[in-house]
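All the exercises in this workshop are built on plain-text protein records. A record pairs a protein's sequence with a compact description of its fold. Backbone structure tokens are a discrete shorthand for how the chain folds in space. Once this layout is familiar, the rest of the handout is easier to follow. As an example, a complete record with its sequence and its structure tokens follows.
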Amino acid sequence: MKILVTGASGFLGTFLCNKLEDKGHDILGLNSTNCDLTDERAIFNLGHDKYDLIFHLAAWTQAGDFCLRHPGEQWIINQKINTHLLTWWQACQPQAKLIAMGTSCSYSTDRRLKEENYLSGQPIDSLFSYAMTKRMLYAGLIALNRQYHLRYLCVIPSTLYGPGYHTDGRQMHFIFDLIRKIIRGKLYGKPVILWGDGRQRRELVYIEDFVDIMLRLNDCCENDIINIGSGKEYSIRHFARRICEIVEYDFDKIVFDTERYVGAKSKCLAIDKLLHYIPNPNMTDLDIGLEKTIQWFRQNQAALL
């Protein structure tokens, strides 16, 4: 198949493109260097090739407190990216099925994180702008399907982890930040200070599992929204303790800074719909996933630490 991927140079995009190429597909990967999606002309200048699938992964965001510091920019930039991509899809690629990324932070914290609640309630205030741009992306998919019968699949990932994360100095998602801080503590004696009291809970999905499940879902469903998670969440303290055991660092040396930003207290996706389509998704064991990720950190410590 001929496949276009936006956000192709990101953590997920890089892994997805490699996987699709290994399967023999013809891939065009877009990133901010070769196609600036904030400029509508850029994607319309791609040429006249027709695609079977479009994976829309591109988004302007980072982890940590990035969303707190850039709410206006996030709204403007991500709305441009999504609107220009959807406009091009409808005008030039109506034969293609579009697989788009939602975000778990679009869910309201006072409701179960279940697909039917994706557009209900209000997202957490600190992530509001980014969360709402992702809701608007999903609304766009629905609207274009209703009027033009375009085919789509919207997938909501839990936090992804595994080897191959960014090495460009940007803020890291919590699990990578935990690993980096604890390895620094082990190697250089630096203090390990974690944000919050460590009681906040998070869910992880190994990057390879996510991509395999997404591709399987593409084969069996369309015009739907589906969470992809492990269905299990653990406290930050649990993750930190396990990382300490793997790198042989004393967990009791960790300092928890309760004055710092922590985001949602709990974030675990309901996966009933996923299990309906794929009853046995075969998730990588957390300990194995962490060991592989830590091994990759050690192999790339010059860039990461």
Observations:
- The first helix runs from residue 11 to 22.
- The chain has a mean pLDDT of 93.
- The chain has two domains: 2-159+204-228, 163-202+232-270+284-304.
- The longest strand covers residues 152-157.
